[in-house]
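User: I'm writing a short report section on ligand binding and want a predicted complex to refer to. Could you take this sequence and S-adenosylmethionine and write out the structure as tokens? A short remark afterwards would be nice.
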Amino acid sequence: MASVYEREFEFSRGDFEHIRDLVGERTGIVLSDHKIDMVYGRLSRRLRQLGIRKFTEYLSRLRDDEQELVEFTNALTTNLTSFFREPHHFDYLRTTGLQTLIKNRPNKKLRIWSAGCSTGEEPYTIAMTVKEALASYPNWDVKILATDLDTNVVNKAKAGIYTQDRVNGIDQTRIKKWFRKGRGDEHAGQLKVASELQDMITFKQLNLMHEWPMSGPFDIIFCRNVVIYFNKDTQRELFDRYANYMANDGYLFVGHSESLHKVSDRFKLIGKTIYHKAR
Ligand SMILES: C[S@@+](CC[C@H](N)C(=O)[O-])C[C@H]1O[C@@H](n2cnc3c(N)ncnc32)[C@H](O)[C@@H]1O
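Assistant: Sure. The structure tokens for the complex follow:
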């Protein structure tokens, strides 16, 4: 690899390594060599906005600009998500997981965590699933905590406003029930999640690598398509912490390419990427 790219901004191998170390320390995200173009592309926008010509200059700015560190982190997260992504998780919750928890919770209380919630599609899907499954069980106290490292996606999630193409996969009955169509020129083509769902969810910025301010225990934890970006040691620590924050009969859902095999023995596999806490 040439030491300096002939591109709009001066970017060396050393700059990439500096960025890789910084991101690894701050977020647990591992940037392998094949992410070099992605890193250049995403951070170039920041340099352009700030009127900076070289990555070395940008990196020295990061040393004492806390706000820019937030922008830097936001630029390097991958936020791909959708409503009812990996639908078998929600089928399992509806038919089995929630039914079991309903029987096991005489206090009628459920606590759910969507860790790495991105722009909110995941926690809103959980909320729809829970509301539908509990429709004939009145007076349940259900709270969903939805967290992400990236401040931009947390704000978007909180707003709960989506364009038509984001909800295309959801059936019409659900759209009618759980979304309100935007009115007027400004909101045409947009849909807002019903306040009934929003009221169940607390959105917060949280770095999973830091202290967790909540106390748990959670009955259900979703941590999907987040740990693929972490190394095995980080995954080990994280799943151990999840086990400590989970009720003994709790459920953990991970992403389609994620597995706890050789990572944690505190959970047992009970379905496709679905785990129960091991007792
Ligand atoms: C690919 S999205 C997955 C979204 C959703 N869970 C899903 O499966 O559709 C991964 C999310 O993890 C978040 N993330 C990455 N590292 C994190 C960390 N250290 N703490 C909290 N969130 C993190 C990213 O900001 C991103 O929004």
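A remark for your report: DSSP finds twelve helices and ten strands in the chain. Residues 9 and 103 are 60 Å apart (CA to CA).
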